[in-house]
Amino acid sequence: MVLSNENLRVAIPSDGAMYEPTLLFLDACGLRVNRANSRRYVADIPFLPGLDVLFQRSADITSKVEDGTADLGLLGHDRYLEMRNEDGPSKVVMNDLGFGGCSLALGIPDSWIDVSSIADLADIAVEFKNNGNSLRIATKSPRLVERFLLSNGISNFSIVESSGTLEVAPAMGFADIIADITSSGTTMRENHLKTIAGGTVIESEACLIANGKLAVENSIKGRVAETFVRIIRAHLDAKEFFSITANIQGVSRDAVASLVSEYESLRGLEGPTISTVFSGSSDNCFAVTVVVGRSLLMQAISDLESIGAQSVTVSQLNYVFQGSELSQRIS
Fold first, then answer.
1. What is the pLDDT along the chain (331 residues), one digit of tens a residue?
2. Domain 8-100+205-237: which CATH number of 2.40.50.100, 3.30.450.20, 3.20.20.80, 3.40.190.10
3. Strands, DSSP E only, in the chain?
4. Which CATH entry fits the domain spanning 241-316: 3.20.20.240, 1.10.10.350, 3.40.50.970, 3.30.70.120?
5. pTM for the whole thing?
């Protein structure tokens, strides 16, 4: 597959913990990635012509978006904050996409029994300073960790950058503590490290970023990007809505509408839809369909049943489109 300069380019992780979840997320959105094989680093999304997918290392996605190699990027929010140029053109279009959840947290040796909070760690840092040493912290996220420590009153430290396994750093003696990505804390515990109260640097999920010049510099790419973002947003919004359909007997459609309108839970997004059911019965029967939020689901079912509803069915929606906001999001 040959890249086209006219196509929108979306960078996604090529490997690591975010690779499979990103593909599964896009597939769930109806944006299945068509990759010929694992050695190809360019793919497409058949559902959305005019878009190329670039497989990149997570650590490189931010820079690819900022230098214009890619227009959009999917990656962990922690990676974005760590790697971004604060004066650069990249912007977060959507945060908290619902996958790739993790924490960047401090890992303290179990043997430090007196350290159970970030305040305790600040005291330890002072002790190190009084002894002519600095607290050594191994991490792959030096910018985020430095800001976090300084914001918590810890200034006597040195960052040990490492691209390898961090959990062994205290045992090997080249760092005193670590700051690493964790989902469950199991790996830290297995390496005799513990988390502490207030020791979470950042909670992170996957996010979508964009080059802020995209919408104004290329209208064709901007329209494809708008569609891509709207599909994802509509899919995420749909998770909070359900479609309920029930059959209700009544003398007329207007009479059923009047009955249903008495219940706040049945007002839906724009009101209920009421249509005639051709059941072959002499009794007038009408199908009432309403879209409700998750918090109102059971109340809406109860209210329908209280007015004689039968054959109540509930469906999870795939998409709820509620407007277009890309130009405002990345400007």
1. 556 678 999 999 998 889 999 999 999 999 999 998 878 899 999 999 999 999 999 999 999 999 999 999 999 999 999 999 999 999 999 998 999 999 999 999 999 999 999 999 999 999 999 999 999 999 999 999 999 999 999 999 999 988 778 999 999 999 999 999 988 778 899 999 999 999 999 999 999 999 988 765 668 888 899 999 999 999 999 999 999 999 999 899 999 999 999 999 998 888 899 999 887 665 789 999 999 999 999 999 999 999 999 899 999 999 998 766 555 555 4
2. 3.40.190.10
3. 8-13, 42-44, 51-56, 72-76, 90-94, 102-109, 135-139, 157-161, 177-182, 193-194, 200-204, 206-211, 241-249, 273-276, 285-293, 310-316
4. 3.30.70.120
5. 0.86
